[in-house]
Amino acid sequence: VPSLRFNVQWIASRMGHGLAVMAVAFVALAMVPRAAQAAESQDVAYVHSLAQKVMDIVNDSALSQSQKETRLGTVIDTNLDIVRIAKFTLGKYRRVASSAEMDQFIPLFRKYAVGLYQARLSQYHGGAQFKVTSSEARANGQGTIVHSTVSTGDQPQPYNLEWWVVDIKGQPTIIDVNIEGVWMAQNLRSQFVSVMDQHGGKVSALIDQLKGMIAQQQQEPAGTPQHT
Amino acid sequence: LRARPSVTETGHGAKTTAVGRLFGRLAAVALACVGLAVAPLTASAQMIPEGASTIQAPPGQSGAANDPLEGFNRKMFSFNLFLAHKLLEPTARAYRWAVPKPGRRSVTNFLNNLDTPVLFANDVLQGDMNEAGVTTARFLSNSTIGVGGLFDPAKGWWGLDRRNEDFGQTLGVWGVGSGPYLMLPLLGPSNPRDLTGRAVDQAFDPLTWTGGRAVTYVQLGLLATRTVTKEEAVMDEFNQIERTSIDFYSQVRSIYNQQRASAIRNGRADTSDLPDLAEFDINQ
Hints:
Strand content of chain A: 15-25%
Shape of chain A: flat
Distance between the termini of chain B: 48 Å
Order of helices and strands of chain A: HHHHEEEEEHH
Strand order of the largest sheet of chain B: 1-2
Largest sheet of chain A: 5 strands, antiparallel
Distance between the termini of chain A: 95 Å
Shape of chain B: globular
Helix content of chain A: 55-70%
Largest sheet of chain B: 2 strands, antiparallel
Strand order of the largest sheet of chain A: 1-2-3-4-5
Number of helices of chain B: 11
Order of helices and strands of chain B: HHHHHHHHEEHHH
Helix content of chain B: 55-70%
Strand content of chain B: under 5%
Number of strands of chain A: 5
Radius of gyration of chain B: 21 Å
Radius of gyration of chain A: 25 Å
Number of strands of chain B: 2
Oligomer: heterodimer
Number of helices of chain A: 6
């Protein structure tokens, strides 16, 4: 029967199309996670090498405190996207900051934030061990979270350390670091917004406070020895 | 809280006075909590910060904290800080001077071991039977081989780490939101969920249900020791954070909120609630 034959052909061709579409979809699906996985493992490798650099400095007993701080400063500065983080920490006030204020704020933020990390990191006196425990690729291209721990001899529990890595123009870059459950960029944003809230939304008030903090950082040695 | 009376009601008539006492204490704890929660609400109705800017931001992009009682909270924070620096810290320094490190560790181990009922109850309520087993194993070994909890062979020999659990976290696991931030006098940072948790944890502690003046003294002693040992453990870090903070009040608020969220996830950083990369000027 011709009509039946026609139908069969038609169905077959539809099925053929369907299969082709499915095949394309499968290949695409298979490739997307693979691409994501590649990015994820690249990000993990990046965190590994960065942490190794930091550990090498921290664990080097031949270096003086100030030498450690200088070297740590360079490593932090070149691996964290300070400008983006700085803008983020202004929160809702970012849109009201004038470009002159931005030009003042970003270098001050750099000094303050780098100083914070220097102070914390330079306190560890050797014997620190770093381990990547796991990683997760976030949905919708929101980067990779690398979970890691740092053990130091004098702490009963290892520190939990998370890194939020994002590829910017093909280069893995750190957007935020979580120390023991606290995301640093979010933490700074909450403080900065609060300062500006209390001063009628003036970015200049925050700039003044940052200047004060930096002056204080430079006065006292960053790494106050811990008593035990 | 509602489940508690039905449990005690299974007690027999001879225990009427005991049951009455249980209810009395429960009521007292509940009242205290309600009082603590309501007082700031009424006190700070007129204290909502005035200088706050009118700048509006899209939801989730402001960096604003859920802190409607900030005016009151800041006052309480100054009060607590004053006490911490003038009273608590000198006491903790004296303790550090007087008791060498191994001794201090044993005190902490001992107090941790006493927390077992609270930990166990919350492990179970969170449906984490594996952790409930760890808590039990730790208690059994540390109470015996560990000489009444003074040592921690469970961790040292078998690698069984202690994980802190409380009913505030349990509520979080059940999906209860934290509510607004609260700075409580003496008790420190909290929120309605964690404050409720404190009261319920108190109910999980068998000492709460043991009568007698002697027990009350023991409880007060334990409370004082806990406070001093905790202060001793955190004061250096705390002081350093205070020195390096732009705004110490919001620093502590941010740390508290984030660490509680992380504790609910058993120490894993909260990665579900991260800001969008667009906020970092990154367009994917």
